[in-house]
Amino acid sequence: MKRFKWFFSLLLVLMLALQLTTVQTNATELVDSTIPSFVDLGENSNDIGQEVVLEFVKEYNEFENPNEVTDKYFYFTFEDDGSSKTSEITKYEANMISSLSAVPSSAGGVVVSVRLDPAGVNKATFTSKIISIAGSKPNKLDFKIQLGKSMTRSNSTTIVSSVTKRLQGILGIKVGAEVTHTFDVTQTGFYTGVLDLTASNLIGSTLGTDRANSPTLLLNNKAKLYPVYTDPASARVMREPDRADWARTPSIDWTYNDTKKYRKWYNETYPNVYDWTKNHVHHMRPRNLGGTNDYSNLIPLPSTFHTGTVSPWFVNY
Q1: Signal sequence: where (predicted)?
Q2: How far apart are the C-alpha atoms of 240 and 242, rounded to whole Å?
Q3: 287 contacts 252 by C-beta, under 8 angstroms
Q4: What is the pLDDT of residues 150-184, one digit of tens each?
Q5: What is the CATH number assigned to the segment(s) 38-219?
Q6: Which residues pair with 279 in a beta bridge?
């Protein structure tokens, strides 16, 4: 009988504890659901002009396109001791981490994607999306979205615009939620989206903060992406300008005889079936921007691509 009473008492205690936990969880969710899921915290004028180091910069060889518009994936982890860490991961790894969300843990992690897109005349849009959540879910995520510009493709950038946007609560902190901001672009430069992500709990205590960055894109003063082209006969890639501040100069001469000599040299060096009436000889560094007639600066381009895409890009350099 005593054993039965002891078991009954223990069962009653467990049931009460479960009910209290359920009530607490429901109360938390009720409070959580009454707050807005998105808050625009405005501009960060103090960030303008600051130079920041880019931790995640890919090295490109001469046959790769450095101006590919693509998503990058980052895993932000927030540890028990308040420290945080960011790792660049693949899309496959990002999706795999979502399976960890069921693992009980007081620490947590968030996988986000970052992307910078040319978005029409004089516009570039930065987007960051929650891909998966692991461990303990934060109550707030502050996305400080910054646009950086540099004169070369480098490991640092200077902030030219900065805003902060917040996702919060059960409706904001969920897979698929995203923040986005469109920046003005009026000068040629190597542009990078920089994200400072800060996680906080329900009472506002910071769980951790860290930084990631998008790929760097070369945009002209109309925010047009530098065009990409690989010559099929020579396998040469049309090099991008190594600087965004080339000075305009008087053009050196380039005659029809120069064109004929280059075509002859090219045909002998790279056997091809080009119809030269449909191909132009392009100076990768234009003559009015300090370019020379050296053959290392020349590449054949389809005439429509040359006149319709490449030349207009440099008009707005």
Answers
A1: 1-27
A2: 6
A3: yes
A4: 999 999 999 999 999 999 999 999 999 999 999 99
A5: 2.60.40
A6: 302
